[in-house]
Automatic annotation (TrEMBL):
<keyword id="KW-0804">Transcription</keyword>
<keyword id="KW-0805">Transcription regulation</keyword>
<keyword id="KW-0238">DNA-binding</keyword>
<dbReference type="Pfam" id="PF07702">
    <property type="entry name" value="UTRA"/>
</dbReference>
<dbReference type="Pfam" id="PF00392">
    <property type="entry name" value="GntR"/>
</dbReference>
<dbReference type="InterPro" id="IPR000524">
    <property type="entry name" value="Tscrpt_reg_HTH_GntR"/>
</dbReference>
<feature type="domain" description="HTH gntR-type">
    <location>
        <begin position="3"/>
        <end position="72"/>
    </location>
</feature>
<dbReference type="InterPro" id="IPR028978">
    <property type="entry name" value="Chorismate_lyase_/UTRA_dom_sf"/>
</dbReference>
<dbReference type="GO" id="GO:0003700">
    <property type="term" value="F:DNA-binding transcription factor activity"/>
</dbReference>
<dbReference type="GO" id="GO:0003677">
    <property type="term" value="F:DNA binding"/>
</dbReference>
<dbReference type="InterPro" id="IPR036388">
    <property type="entry name" value="WH-like_DNA-bd_sf"/>
</dbReference>
<dbReference type="InterPro" id="IPR036390">
    <property type="entry name" value="WH_DNA-bd_sf"/>
</dbReference>
<dbReference type="GO" id="GO:0045892">
    <property type="term" value="P:negative regulation of DNA-templated transcription"/>
</dbReference>
<dbReference type="InterPro" id="IPR011663">
    <property type="entry name" value="UTRA"/>
</dbReference>
<dbReference type="InterPro" id="IPR050679">
    <property type="entry name" value="Bact_HTH_transcr_reg"/>
</dbReference>
<protein>
    <recommendedName>
        <fullName>HTH gntR-type domain-containing protein</fullName>
    </recommendedName>
</protein>
């Protein structure tokens, strides 16, 4: 193994988990056992396990010394399934928005070059009890953006198109269904709940010249997802 050896360990273990070699809720080997298997230090194994926890593939229900493969979504407890079917979860009634100009992370900067600072739009949707959806969007600075991001309507992408002087060409989305990590359960204020299913949605919006004008990351509690975009009609006359 070369480079950062713990990343190589992550790649192997991730592949084994996703392929089904390790059944859901299986207790994984100790750090010493894996260190011997891969010929690396126990600290490298600790880093690998930390990454797999962050990816939502393993969890530690009984303390940091016991690491298990996450239960499959089909094995979520009946209590949690009923909790998610509650109509209040499907219709959040409180929305909190925060907008600021900040230095973007490297992965966003690579998609949206040319500006040291971008507009970050963060939104939380909450029902009467807890947060059910977290959204983070990135945009180039624009004078109108502060108004139209706060109050988006069906003309939002028309405004975005007009700002950049060319039509929006397409949206590209990646949707992954997985379980929440411990950090995400704290974010969603569901730390008292057992492992919950989550939708991890990432969207990139491009113009006709292939310029990225929007990068969005959405975390939504639940297992079902409906995509519906209404792109404003643009007359050529």
């Amino acid at each position: 193994m070369g480079g950062r050896v713990w990343e190589d360990v992550v790649d192997v273990l991730r592949g084994e988990i996703l392929s089904g070699k390790w059944a859901p809720d299986t207790v994984l080997p100790s750090r010493n056992e894996l260190a011997q298997r891969f010929g690396v230090s126990t600290s490298a194994i600790s880093l690998a396990y930390k990454q797999l926890i962050a990816e939502g593939l393993i969890y530690t229900p009984h303390g940091p010394r016991e690491r298990r493969v996450v239960p499959s979504l089909g094995r979520v407890s009946n209590r949690d399934t009923e909790f998610l079917r509650d109509p209040a979860w499907q219709h959040p009634n409180i929305r909190t928005i925060r907008i600021e100009a900040v230095r973007p992370p490297e992965e966003v900067k690579a998609l949206m070059p040319g500006s040291d600072r971008l507009i970050r739009w963060q939104s939380q949707h909450r029902d009467a009890r807890t947060i059910v959806s977290l959204v983070e969007g990135w945009y180039y600075p624009a004078t109108w953006l502060w108004d139209y991001v706060v109050k988006p309507d069906e003309t939002f992408y028309a405004k975005l198109s007009a700002q950049h002087g060319e039509p929006i060409a397409y949206f590209e989305e990646w949707v992954q269904s997985r379980v929440t990590t411990p950090d995400e359960r704290r974010q969603f204020e569901t730390a008292g709940q057992s492992v919950l299913p989550i939708l991890d949605i990432r969207r990139v919006t491009r113009t006709t010249s292939d310029k990225v004008v929007e990068v969005v990351h959405l975390l939504d509690l639940g297992t079902r997802y409906r995509l519906y975009y209404r792109v404003p009609y643009r007359s050529e006359s």
